[in-house]
Write a structure and sequence with these properties.
Blueprint lengths: L2 H12 L2 H40 L7 H28 L5 H6 L1 H11 L1 H15 L8 E4 L2 E8 L3 E5 L5 E5 L6 E3 L5 E10 L4 H15 L11 E8 L5 E10 L4 H18 L22
Antiparallel strand pairs: 1-2, 1-5, 2-3, 3-4, 6-8, 7-8
């Protein structure tokens, strides 16, 4: 085909009013579909939020952890479904989607080989939620990542560390999970005293202190317990006395810090030294000079 004929055909196409009318009509339909999908998405999310607010006043409700997980999961699934339907509706303006869906079974096997990880992610995510292994708001450790669960989706799980980093993990990579938020925690404090101090005196002071602190800390489930001498320090420098307290989940960091502060102040009042590095210097006398 000569360049002149090509230019003439292009001119006829772009000067055709019916062609521009069809393009404008499809464009308006596509924009309308996108706007309707966005509006429908917010309506569905508002309905889900409303349902969970009503459940807060219901006497038969799930645990808060479980409800937060299901709330975010339903929002996630709703977004996927709405966008998928909108995409099919837009494609239907350009091609026959029915025939594509009918032929999906033929190419499904080929696509399946390329989407094995995606299928594993979805199946693993389903079992994480079904078995209630962990929920949104739980503090967990997964392989080398540790933090608070921000979201559990069908494909990924988001974990936020205490320093602010957000880790996004494929669900299929989650093989071992340590959940710190289900059962009570133990606040463990090791108190070091100098090797020269009286062990019984120090232990009695620590016992008197921990017997009085529980009313000040509602997170404590039981009174702290003095377990006794835990370790004799290397180089005869310290004696370690261990104190343990059962507390509510994920409050052991706070309670341990407060106990250390209180015990340090009380031991200082009693004149019991906390060990610190010391250096002793010996000077050898010089032999007398011969005359």
């Amino acid at each position: 085909m000569e360049p002149t004929q090509t230019a003439e055909q292009a001119f006829q196409l772009f000067s055709n009013k019916e062609w521009w009318t069809a393009i404008a009509g499809k464009g308006i339909k596509i924009v309308s579909i996108i706007l309707l999908a966005i509006i429908f998405k917010y309506v569905i999310k508002a309905a889900i939020t409303r349902i969970f607010k009503v459940r807060l006043r219901s006497p038969l409700r799930l645990s808060e952890r479980r409800e937060n997980t299901l709330y975010k999961l339903l929002n996630n699934v709703a977004s996927y479904v709405i966008y998928f339907v909108a995409l099919l509706t837009i494609l239907d303006e350009f091609m026959n989607v029915t025939s594509i869906l009918a032929g999906a079974g033929v190419v499904g096997l080929a696509i399946g080989f390329g989407a094995q990880n995606l299928v594993k992610d979805i199946i693993t995510g389903f079992f994480i939620i079904f078995e209630n292994q962990f929920s949104v708001g739980d503090y967990v450790r997964i392989t080398s990542f540790e933090g608070t669960v921000e979201e559990i989706g069908l494909r990924t799980t988001k974990i936020k560390s205490w320093t602010g980093e957000l880790h996004i993990l494929p669900n299929s990579s989650i093989t071992e999970v340590t959940n710190f938020s289900i059962h009570n925690s133990m606040a463990v404090v090791d108190v070091s005293i100098a090797y020269e101090e009286d062990i019984d005196k120090a232990q009695n002071i620590i016992q008197d202190v921990v017997a009085k602190v529980k009313p000040n800390f509602p997170e404590m489930v039981k009174d702290p317990e003095v377990l006794g001498v835990q370790m004799l320090g290397a180089g005869a420098s310290e004696i370690v006395i261990r104190v343990a307290a059962e507390v509510l989940p994920m409050t052991h960091f706070k309670i341990a810090r407060e106990l250390r502060k209180i015990l340090k102040l009380e031991l200082d009042k009693a004149g019991i030294d906390i060990p610190y590095p010391k250096m002793v210097t010996y000077q050898k006398d010089k032999p007398p000079k011969e005359k």
